[in-house]
Predict the 3D structure of the following.
Amino acid sequence: MATWRKLLVSACAFRARNATCRTFKTSSRGAEKDIFNDLESQFRAFREKAATAMPGSDWNPFELTAGLPPERADIVIVGGGVVGWSIAYWLKRKEKARDALRVVVVEKDPSYTQASTVLSCGGIRQQFSLKENILLSLASADFLKNINDHLGMLNEDPVDLQFNHSGYLFLASDKSAHIMEENYRTQREVGAKVALLSPSQLKERFPWINTDGVALASLGLENEGWFDPWSLLNALRRKVMSMGVYQCFGEVTGFRCSASTAEAKDGDIFNVKRIKYVNVQMPNSLEYQPVECAVVVNAAGANSGKIAEMLGIGLGPQQSISGIPFPVEPRKRFVYVVHCPDGPGLETPFLIDYSGVYCRREGLGGNYITGMSPEEAEEPDISNLDVDHEFFQEKVWPRLAHRLPAFESLKVSSAWAGFYDYNTFDQNGIIGLHPLVTNMYFATGFSGHGLQQSPSVGRAVAELIVDGCYKTIDLSAFDVKRILLQEPILERNIV
Amino acid sequence: MAASLLSQAMRRCSAHTCTVAFRRSLSSAPSSVFNRFLLKLNHHFYDVKNIVGWSSWLRTRLVRRKNKLFSHTRQRFGDNIAAAYYILSVRGSFRFAGQSEWFRPDSRGRFSYEFLSTPDAHIEHMDLSGTLINHDGLDNLVRQNKLQTLSLRGCPEVDDWFIGRLHVFGESLVELDLSHCSCVTVGGLAALKNLRKLQLLDISGLPLLQSPGLVRILVEEMLPHCRVTGADYERGLTQTDSLEPPENHSETSSHTNTGLRPI
């Protein structure tokens, strides 16, 4: 319509010009050239439109809902927390050519109100007993040390994580001092900088601690502390979206798979699935988009068990492999912010007592963050994120006041609750492929350590997907098959 | 009448040329060379972005080169000589324990190799002010556990991670000068608790400290035997008419550990 109008207008103008300016030869020739220029540009527009109508382009004649994921992707990452974005970052770092991998990150909650990442205390430590955990944490500290080399962007402010280098302080009683000593030897061997302190040395360094019942203490000297998880998440998102990863807000409600049968050594026959489509449902709507994909990564955190159930893991007969459920479930943990004007100052480390209570400084105004892991039998209800203040009064405060006498008078300013992606099997991460699903990689079950291990876990999963094997840190101890073989690898905690 | 006809024709022709010019500007190529160049660059957006990224990599190349680990020197000559060589190559200066003269490079960066004659002498005083040392370069110096004074005045690459690594000097370091290091924040100053023998600390001129007075009070409480200079108490307080003058005017008086905070 517009083109016809333009033609008509130019034709009228041409006739008008010819009628009045017959003597001005140059202008009429200019008018002819102008007509041909117009025609040329209209032909060009027509050619472009024809090219977009051909298959292979993203143009669609129907109106689409905003926010739908693309119809086809190479890798779909379920879960937009720090682990999911870290995997997306390393996939884009390791792809062999530009735009070789189309990666889509699917996140259920655009406001991140229930995501474990942003509700975390933000600590990072190397004081573990398993070598793999220590290596993961050291590599993550290296990533955070050089974060502007990794996640820095042109014309943007440098990333500020507000990292506090105060270290972790673990206290052990008589019963667990030997475990702490063995852990110390492993940590030193692997390269973590930790120091053991006797009760008198502890009292000298931190006079505000009550060393009653403490047999040994272990202080992290380097690469330990806490930081702001929201800044890390935003820095990752900003950088990764600039590298070309699609972000989609929607919930994964199902999969469409193709199945084939496989026979185990003992003659068991079971179904092996291959995911063909991921159904992503839009928020507040019944509309869903099946995303055709090659690989799916389950980084859904506390909801990973639900995703695994959608594929039938755990729903088979009891005695077979498909009857073993995926052991990750959400567990609610409370964090209380307290204000104590007489509390310890800038030297306060992230203190973890053998009774399970922990406490760290928050800011410079005499505020502290504290909490405790509840007993197995008293796990709080996971249907909501309401805070139980009775838990603080009954369980946390007495133990805290016993260890830090200054905390006998304090005021709870606020509190929040968050979910752990708790691995009920052995409380360590689960990374790798499941035998029953050929193209789903799991990166979940970190039970409270997801944030501090996320940069290096992202690299490990990207190595698995792109290179087929671990190249930097060998995490075969965290493979899924340990759950099917019932061989737990437990952290030897001192609590 | 002919004149009026002619003037009408002129007006219509000028209108016509205006419309022609307008249509040409709408349709195809912009006129100036610079605009055409920018449009051509826009077709290669990601290539241009990578090239600009390389330029920032080139800018940090000097810092990376200055902070390489001198492992071969350390293997061949020992820790002390390797540390001494590193300090001189990064344009700092040092003094051995028991000696009185400083080893410095001249203004062109050249230095004498007399330190080779004393392989067993430990370095006691280091002046690294204004150098490009960062947390990687500290690998060359971590074995110097008799270090007593360290000056990092005005080092642009010294940040919180660097201060976190200074715990290796915890049993010997007496004086530390962190003034005018633009990347240091209060999170790094919290790591100074491992320097148990520190007696003199300078934290003046740190632009990233939000409330320097409060930070100074907290650092003085954290290190009771240390005299902290810089970061006046008044800084960070809002200016009001009813503000009382601070109790402690002079910066040089030491602050005893009574557990009270002078607010």
Chain B touches chain A through 42 residues (CB under 8 Å). Residues 79-229 of chain B form a domain with the Leucine-rich repeat, LRR (right-handed beta-alpha superhelix) fold (CATH 3.80.10.10).
